Every structure is written in structure tokens, then in C-alpha cells.
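Form P-L/3: holo structure prediction, ligand iron/sulfur cluster.
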Amino acid sequence: MKYVSEFRRGDVARALAAEIARLATRPVKLMEVCGGHTHAIFKFGLPSLLPPTIDLIHGPGCPVCVTPRDKVDQAILLARRPGVLLTTYGDMLRVPGSRSSLLQEKARGADVRMVYSPLDALRLAEQHPDKQVVFFAIGFETTAPSAAMAVLKAQTQHLRNFAVLSNHVLLPPMLKAILDSREVKLDAFIGPGHVSTIIGTRPYEFVARRYGKPLVVAGFEPLDLLQAILMLLRQLQEGRAEVEIQYTRVVKPEGNLLALRALGEVFEPCHARWRGMGTVPASGLKIRARYAAWDAEARYPDLEVPREVADPKACECGDIVRGAKKPWDCRIIGTACTPQTPVGACMVSPEGACAAYYKYGRLHVARAAPTPVG
Ligand code: SF4
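OUTPUT (holo model):
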């Protein structure tokens, strides 16, 4: 299969792994920012190909994982309103709020529906003029353009029974927050593939220039990731700190200008709260005042903003999305917390680190070997 099988060749993977082992002469911590990378790393068993000197730290790039509980509570309050049809992505239905989830609300009679994109939600608004259709929007710069397009389309169609509850977040401010916190001493970053298709690589330049950390934007196949790790090691060995693109078949330095234009037209930056990180300045997207007619927060000014709610005591999701802990540090992973009974958001989404550890058996590897690789 074009663009798949050639990126999964075992002989090339072994050659890359040998070169990585040759260069990895000292311990390095590499953060893979994107949840899709976390998933791919475990799906393809990459930690078993890497030398023990390379520690992969899982970053904040799973949108479901970083959405705080009270945002789920707010969507639930909206879903309970008569006449509201609340839509969102499938994973968000299962994320626990403080007392319930959207799926449980649906079981209790609320009109909550799963959609694959905000344009599906827009279609529901066309089909149900008697309902107020709200799209509970989460995600990074990858998904925000489609929410922007839905708002623009609603305006063109004069569709007044559609609104977006925006919880979109931006990745570069979060990287800055992680670097500023110095909680985890990182050597370099595997940059996100999907987000970078939209924003390009220029927004990451500060990582190299101001903080002196290399960043390589990577694709999602095993050879993509191994090559990106090798590129990072070469930078470290040569004393360089640059932003490079491994995923050149998809990512351009300037990004997707059409998507960026739609994003800038509909949204503006705002402070946003992240699970485990608190409020990060200018890291969220809110709908501009000129599109208030399609902004759920403006449409429902009495909509309560629930209090910030901490995760359950046993759940380490907050530390995991900051890279401060790994899923095997959680006492209840694989026992009380499983994909069928998720206690925290990191177990809900396939991009969540806990779900990846559970699904691909890293949990058992970790328990068998107290000082695991990866
Ligand atoms: S295993 Fe479950 S409870 Fe533990 S950190 Fe992950 S999501 Fe939270």
C-alpha cells in the first residue's frame, strides 16, 4: 500500500535502530507531543527497538485527555436543557465529568449524539429546525479549522439553530508552559504530525531559538518515528537546536493557509485551562464576537461554568499529560481503570497514554521489569 508498507519495512527499521543505538551514548529524554505518536510507538513496539538510554516521555497531545472535567460538566448542563441536541466526537461521550458522562446523560434521556465532524452537527441542525444543535468542540489546531468552517457555513446558510461550545486548545503555548515549568528535564521534542499540517513549523521556532531544544515533526509510521528520533540524536550530537520536518510528504513550513485563514476568521486566542496544567495563557480558542450568534457561550449567557473539579485521587492523568509520570505509576491502571471502566480521560481516547499502555501490553512489561525502556 503506497505510503504505508514502505514505512514499515523491518530491514530499514533495524538499520535505523542500529544507528540510533550508535548515537545514543548518553541518557536522553524525548517528548512525543502528539497522542497519535504515543499510540503508534506502542502499536509498533518501538520501545523494544530503542536502547535503554532513550526515554520517551508522553506529552499533552491527546485532546480528550487534556480537556478538564468541568468542561465535560458544562457540556452536560447544556445537554440537559430542553430542546438542545448536543453533539460531539465519540470519545468525549465516555469521558467522566464530576458526576456523570455524556453517555450516561444520553441513557437518562438527553439528546446527545456522536458525530464525526462539526459539519455532521451542522447537517443535524438543518434536519432538526425545532432543535438547538450544539457542537461540543475539543481538540488542537487539527480539528479547529473544521469547527471554523461549520460556523462560516452556518452563517452563509443563515442557520440560527447551530452553535459551537469551543474548548479548542493550541499546542505551541502548551509547549512553552512545559518548558517554563522545568518539571521534566527534556532534551528534545518529536513534533506533532497532524497539528503541523495546519500550523506548519514556524510556531515552534521558539523551542529551538529560546530554549535550545531540537524539535523534529514526525509522521505516524514506525520508520517515520525512528527516523525522527535519529534526526533528533544527530542534532544533539552536533550541538544543534533546530526545527526540522521528517514528515515532509505532508507537512510544509507554512502550514495549510486555507485552514489558517478560516481559523483566524472565526476564532481568537484566549486563556484556557488544561487538565493537569491549570490555566495556560493564550492557549485556547474562543469564537470572535462577530460570530456570537454561533457561539454557545454567547447563546446561553446563563450557562453555568462549573467549578474546577480535580480528578479522582487515584488518577494520575494530570501528571501524565505533563510528562511528569508514566501510566505504570498509576496504582489502578488495568484494575479499577480499564478502557471499559475508565476512571480518567487518559484511558478513554485511543490516543491517551494509559489506553496505549493497556492495549499494547506495556503495563505488563513494566510490572515484569521495574526499569523498563521507553
Ligand atoms: S490508568 Fe486511569 S486512573 Fe490511572 S492515570 Fe490513567 S486514566 Fe487516570
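COMMENT: The CA atoms of residues 202 and 253 lie 6 Å apart.
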